[in-house]
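BUG: 3D viewer hangs when loading the predicted structure for this chain

Environment: internal workstation, default settings.
Expected: structure renders.
Actual: progress bar stalls at 90%.

Input used:
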Amino acid sequence: MSDRLTHFDAAGNAVMVDVGGKAVTAREATAKARVAMRPETLRMILDGTAKKGDVFGVARLAGIMAAKRTAELIPLCHPLPLSAVTVDLQADGADGVAITATVKTTGRTGVEMEALTAASVTALTVYDMCKAVDRGMRIEALRVVAKSGGKSGDFRQE
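Structure tokens produced before the viewer hung:
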């Protein structure tokens, strides 16, 4: 296996990276995002009065389901057997929802894309469930904040 992983073959064509020579290790990644909104929209979510139902519950489920389908959404992304996916939503100040998604696997490649997919689909679901009352919501600060396992080692950013 080459020390340099690439999505291009010798002819410059896009290919899925061959991870067959990489060691199987426990891998984990955490991604975060934020949905900024009007304070009254956040109160509606927290009070459970959104017309579409339990915003946090539905968004959490959507994020978990999305993580499991990442390889179908992101070209050249490896399909991975996920051992755990958690999605946490909570109020962030008076005008936002903080989202944290953590994904785990034991495999030859990491789960950063699955964590990012979970966080982004969770944020999109919050937007979808509340857009009728707050069209000005913004999805912000989508990023990987931690990863562990694999040859490249651990990463933490907060």
